[in-house]
Amino acid sequence: MGVTKKIARNTFFLVIASIISYVAYFFALMYMARYLGPEEFGILSIAIAFTGLFGIFTDLGLGMLTVREVSKDKKLAAKYIGNIIPMKAVFSVIALIYILIATVLMGYDPKTTTVIILITLAIVTSSFFTTFFSVFQAYQQMEYQAIATGFDNIFMFAAVAAAISLSWDVVALASIYLVRNVLVLAYMFIIYIRRYELPKIEFDLSFWKPTIKEALPFVLSGIFLTLFIWIPSIILSAAAGKEAVGFYGAPNKLIYFFLSLYSVYMVVVFPVMSIYYKKSENSLKFIYERSFKYTLIICLPVTIFISLMAPQIVTAVYGDAYGPSALALQILVWTLTLVSVSGISANLLGSINRQLTVIKITTVGIVLNILVGLLLIHKFSFIGASVTTVVTDISVLLFMLYTLSKTNFVDRSLFRDLPKIILSNLAMVFAVYCLKDFNLVITALCGFIIYLTSLNFTKIFDENDLVIFKKMYRTRGK
């Protein structure tokens, strides 16, 4: 169970920092959306969609590959970081050129184009500091990343508050993203050279080619987690305009907030998966099964609650101007559970060197996303975009689970706790439905209490779970 102690220690550092960070970012986003209004916020959403669509190619899966390989052999750290920095520089220039061409072809106005360029530069900057993140993840030293994660969005919140008080426009607000990422990059660079050494930049082309080939599957895995959300935004911007993108983008950002919190666990568990695939297949199976179980326990009730209370949540977070976003949120929120489960499944496939399978599934998902999007968005606007995203996520998850059912790591026991989880959620649904006209916070609190009580009643946690919780508590105490 030493694997549990590693996950618990690193999760503790990152969860605390990430909760603070993402809550700060959530409030910054909320104030921006209220301040800008649906149309101007739609410009920012279009820019983020573009960077989600093309920005993944600034990394090309090299970060995840670095985590996997350096986790296995720490001596490779200097080689990887020395070559990946110049590799990312080349890819970033290429991505920027593609984004500029796409922006021109889409016919966006100068303001939208400027915002897209600023957000793109911010994403390029982040691709460099995530290189340092990868090394720290491989070494299971998350405290440095935790500090950076805690700082960046606190700065974001303060900067947004100052910008709004000064009546800045959407272009100035977009520049905050770039400044924030430059500061994080400077911090991570300083920490790395103090903790290890000054990176020695290399142009080892004999290393580049096989590394890029090996990393490509991780690109498509990353695309799955981001592209399926943003492709509809691009189609929507052309078919229905900026305001529709704003109505779609507002609930999307809310869901991204919750996905970002859960992604902390994914960052921590992947290097451990990679290590234990070589050492113990039983340990890897145990990690996946428990991750699957905990994902459903955590994400499913949040998904159901948000779907039930979407109108009240949209009004409370974004204001009355975003009322049409409520139906979109009711639909889109299901991506929280779908993407989270698919994420751990994709990580399992990646850790057992089944990257080609991830490529095939992701390719099918992208094609389906575009085809369904073209079919629905033109007729149903941002509601069609929401349905497109969910349909794609369901399809990809089913493909993932079917593929894993053919391996030794997944069997029927994966779903043994599903009836208990469903029963507990039904109890919560009944409580929320009875209290839906009360204060939102009170309703959420009561629903949460009923849910926890139901989980305890169904005895969903077994002896292995209790051992995990005890070790997590002891690790936190240390």
TrEMBL record:
InterPro entries: Poly_Biosynth_Transport, Polysacc_synth. GO terms for cellular component: plasma membrane. The keyword Metal-binding does not apply. Keywords: Cell membrane, Membrane, Transmembrane, Transmembrane helix. This is Uncharacterized protein. The keyword Transmembrane helix applies. The chain crosses the membrane at residues 12-31, 43-67, 88-108, 114-136, 148-168, 174-194, 215-235, 255-276, 296-319, 331-350, 357-377, 383-405, 426-452. It comes from Methanobacterium bryantii. Pfam families: Polysacc_synt (PF01943). It is found in: Cell membrane. It is a multi-pass membrane protein.
